[in-house]
Structures are given as structure tokens and as C-alpha cells.
């Protein structure tokens, strides 16, 4: 794609401007490191463009201090205080959201995850945000806690121009098929392979 020129232009009746402004559904999957990191990089661009950003983390522990979370909280404050960038919301396990992985059976976890997705679906239907990160969302889909077809139908039918990026290993085939942008992270080497622990500033 030299100079951003697509190899072919689809015969869809849309103008170049309309095609450029179409909402994007992105999926970052695969066994390699960097899926969430890449998604947060996209969210940073969205914030800088003045888009309303919302992050929803489905698996990471509430006690895990995620570096990107602290940074985005400061960016949200910057928007509130000086009108720079866009608004930011960050929701994760243990922060009062219904998909919190509490003690209980898989049935309990599945019901909680379904409630969490229902909240996101309501926000999509109401065009609450401009850019959504559904971090590690492939796992409740893979475990059967949330119906893949229901999710894909809601994503394909979302109104307005709401961008969504989903991260996690083993993305379901129907989600991959529905997405506009799919990146598979492949691991070549990792420090943990030789017994090194995760490092501050690298893993969190």
C-alpha cells in the first residue's frame, strides 16, 4: 500500500470520505506479547484526537497495578481540567463491575461476565463512547460465558462511529471474520522462557 493507497477500491457506493470515517472493529489475538499494549496505543491516539475512550478489562486482577491505567487516568483528568484530548473511563475487575471474578462456581462467573457484556452492549446501543477497548474479552467468549454470535451481531449493528478493539488469545473465528482489522501476535522469544520475571515498566 504505497503512500496509503489501497490496492483496490470497493464498489460499495461510498465516497472516499465516508469510507475513511467508517467505524473500525479491531482484534488483537495470538500467543505473543503486546496485544493489550497495542490496543492502548490505539486508545492513546483516539484520546489525542478528542475521542471519548472507555476501557473494560475482563480478566486482569483488580489488585494488578496496570501502568496504562494510571496514565489514562491522568489523561482523563487533563481533559476534565483543561479540555485537552477526550474523556476517559477505565473499568476493571474489582472496581464494582458485575463481571468481577469473585469466589464462586463457573456458573456464577459466566453470569457475571454476561452482565458485564450487557452493560457494554447498552453503551454501544446508546453511543456512549467513541472508542472502546475490551481487554482480554476473548477469554469469556472462548469459555462459553458469553455467546459469540450475540456479541458479533451487536458489534456489527452498532450505530454511529464507535470504534472497538478486542484483545486476547484464541479469538473466535466469527469475531475474526467480522473484524475490519486483525493482528495476530506471534511469540518468537520471551524473557520468561529462560526464567526471568516480569519487570516494572515492561509487563506493568
UniProtKB/TrEMBL annotation:
The keyword Transferase applies. GO terms for molecular function: ATP binding; corrinoid adenosyltransferase activity. Keywords: Transferase. InterPro entries: CblAdoTrfase_CobA, P-loop_NTPase. Its EC number is 2.5.1.17. GO terms for biological process: cobalamin biosynthetic process. Pfam families: CobA_CobO_BtuR. This is Cob(I)yrinic acid a,c-diamide adenosyltransferase.
Amino acid at each position: 500500500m504505497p503512500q496509503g493507497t489501497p490496492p483496490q477500491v470497493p464498489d460499495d457506493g461510498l465516497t472516499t470520505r465516508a469510507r475513511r470515517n467508517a467505524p473500525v472493529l479491531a482484534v488483537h489475538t495470538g500467543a505473543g506479547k503486546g496485544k493489550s499494549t497495542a490496543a492502548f496505543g490505539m486508545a492513546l491516539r483516539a484520546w489525542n484526537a478528542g475521542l471519548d475512550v472507555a476501557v473494560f478489562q475482563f480478566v486482569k486482577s483488580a489488585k494488578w497495578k496496570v501502568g496504562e491505567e494510571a496514565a489514562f487516568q491522568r489523561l482523563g483528568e487533563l481533559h476534565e481540567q483543561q479540555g485537552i484530548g477526550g474523556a476517559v473511563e477505565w473499568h476493571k475487575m474489582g472496581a464494582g463491575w458485575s463481571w468481577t471474578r469473585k469466589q464462586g462456581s463457573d456458573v456464577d462467573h459466566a453470569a457475571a461476565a454476561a452482565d458485564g457484556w450487557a452493560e457494554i452492549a447498552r453503551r454501544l446501543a446508546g453511543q456512549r463512547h467513541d472508542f472502546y477497548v475490551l481487554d482480554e474479552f476473548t477469554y469469556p467468549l472462548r469459555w462459553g460465558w458469553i455467546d459469540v454470535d450475540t456479541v458479533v451481531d451487536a458489534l456489527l449493528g452498532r450505530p454511529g462511529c464507535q470504534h472497538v478493539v478486542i484483545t486476547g488469545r484464541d479469538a473466535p473465528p466469527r469475531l475474526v471474520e467480522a473484524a475490519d482489522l486483525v493482528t495476530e501476535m506471534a511469540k518468537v522469544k520471551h524473557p520468561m522462557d529462560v526464567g526471568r520475571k516480569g519487570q516494572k515498566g515492561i509487563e506493568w
